[in-house]
């Protein structure tokens, strides 16, 4: 191995007198080497690079296509969601208005029912008062009648003697007899 490296090193010391050899001057040989390497890479790597770029281009295009389809789908979903939202908002407004109307109707019905109940209670109260007044009046009448009757009986008993008593009984029997004849 030492012989191989020595031969390269010794080649570098040859004088460049029109013969073929290695130029060890880095500044002079670097652009040439780079252009040769680039030329070989372009010539042989052109197909591979084109294939890689075509594959990358196809993946980017398919990604863009998928993204566009997803975007269209998202836009459609958004429009459907907006339409549903509008519909739900309209239904909510309708329910709200119907609810307010129903509440107002129930309120009016409740007020009317309460008013009717109060009227009925007032009528019952008035009827009860009238009934109690009539009952009290009847009781007072009965008491007055009983007192008057007792007073009249007391006056009659004190004023009647037996002869007057006998005549009164006879007159009453006569009246009863005439009533019997009429009914027969």
UniProtKB/TrEMBL annotation:
Record GO terms (molecular function): proton transmembrane transporter activity
Family assignment from sequence similarity: Belongs to the ATPase B chain family.
Segments forming a coiled coil: 64-98
HAMAP family: ATP_synth_b_bprime
Membrane protein topology class: Single-pass membrane protein
GO cellular component: proton-transporting ATP synthase complex
Annotated Pfam families: ATP-synt_B
Compartment list: Membrane
Protein name (database record): ATP synthase CF0 B subunit subunit I
Main location: membrane
Protein's job: F(1)F(0) ATP synthase produces ATP from ADP in the presence of a proton or sodium gradient. F-type ATPases consist of two structural domains, F(1) containing the extramembraneous catalytic core and F(0) containing the membrane proton channel, linked together by a central stalk and a peripheral stalk. During catalysis, ATP synthesis in the catalytic domain of F(1) is coupled via a rotary mechanism of the central stalk subunits to proton translocation.
Transmembrane portions of the chain: 32-49
Organism (species): Tulbaghia violacea
Keywords: ATP synthesis, CF(0), Chloroplast, Coiled coil, Hydrogen ion transport, Ion transport, Membrane, Plastid, Thylakoid, Transmembrane, Transmembrane helix, Transport
GO biological process assignments: proton motive force-driven ATP synthesis
Source lineage: Eukaryota, Viridiplantae, Streptophyta, Embryophyta, Tracheophyta
Record gene name: atpF
Tagged with keyword Ribosomal protein: no
């Amino acid at each position: 191995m030492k012989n191989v490296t020595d031969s390269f090193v010794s080649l570098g010391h040859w004088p460049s007198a029109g013969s073929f050899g290695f130029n060890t001057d880095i500044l002079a040989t670097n652009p040439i080497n780079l252009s040769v390497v680039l030329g070989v890479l372009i010539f042989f790597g052109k197909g591979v690079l084109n294939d890689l770029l075509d594959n990358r281009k196809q993946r980017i295009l398919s990604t863009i296509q998928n993204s566009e389809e997803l975007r269209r789908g998202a836009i459609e979903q958004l429009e459907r969601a907006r339409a549903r939202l509008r519909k739900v908002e309209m239904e909510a407004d309708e329910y709200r208005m119907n609810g307010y109307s129903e509440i107002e109707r129930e309120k009016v019905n409740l007020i009317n029912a309460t008013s009717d109940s109060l009227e009925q209670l007032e009528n019952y109260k008035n009827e009860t008062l009238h009934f109690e007044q009539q009952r009290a009046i009847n009781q007072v009448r009965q008491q007055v009648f009983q007192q008057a009757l007792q007073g009249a009986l007391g006056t009659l008993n004190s004023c009647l003697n037996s002869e007057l008593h006998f005549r009164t009984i006879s007159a009453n029997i006569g009246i009863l007899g005439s009533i019997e004849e009429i009914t027969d």
